[in-house]
Amino acid sequence: MTRTQSPAGGRLVRIVGMVLTAVFGVTFLCFAWMTLSSRFGGGTGDPHGYVLIFGTFLALLAGLALAFVVPLVFRSGSRGTAYSVSLVAYVVVAAGLIAALLTA
After folding, report:
1. Using one digit for the tens of pLDDT, what is the confidence trace for 41-91?
2. Rounded to whole angstroms, how far apart are CA atoms 99 and 94?
3. In angstroms, rounded to a whole number, what is the distance separating the alpha carbons of residues 76 and 94?
4. The whole model's pTM is what?
5. Residue-range domain boundaries for the chain
6. What b/e string do you get for 32-42 counting C-beta neighbours within 10 Å, with b at 16 or more?
7. What is the 3-state secondary structure (H, E, C) of the chain?
C-alpha cells in the first residue's frame, strides 16, 4: 500500500526546504566568494592561504548540504530529478573549487 502525504504536510516540507535552501545557499555563496576572492584577488589579504584552504572546505560542506536541501522545494513527484540535477551541479562546482585550491 502506498502512503499519500496530506497537502498541508507537503506544503510544510516545501516551506522548510525553502528556508533551509536560503540559509545554506547564502552560507555557500559567502564561503565560495571568500575562497575565490582569496584565489583570484590581487591583494595580500590572505598571505598564508588560510582563507583559501578553510573557505574551500567550508564551501564544500555548505554546498553538499545545499545539494541535499534544494530538492525539498519541489513537489514530491519531481524530487528524484531535482536530486540528480542538484548533485551533478554540486560535483561540477566542487571540482571548480578544488581546482582553484590546488592551482593556487
Report:
1. 876 777 888 888 999 999 999 999 999 999 999 998 999 999 999 999 999
2. 8
3. 27
4. 0.85
5. 7-102
6. bebbbebbeee
7. CCCCCCHHHHHHHHHHHHHHHHHHHHHHHHHHHHHHHHHHCCCCCCCCCHHHHHHHHHHHHHHHHHHHHHHHHCCHHHHHHHHHHHHHHHHHHHHHHHHHHHCC
Rounded Cα distance between 23 and 88, Å, is 21
> How many Cα atoms within 13 Å fall on the side-chain side of residue 62?
22
Grid cell digits, residue 47: 598571505
Q: Which grid cell is 23? A: 540559509
Extract the C-alpha cell encoding 31.
564561503
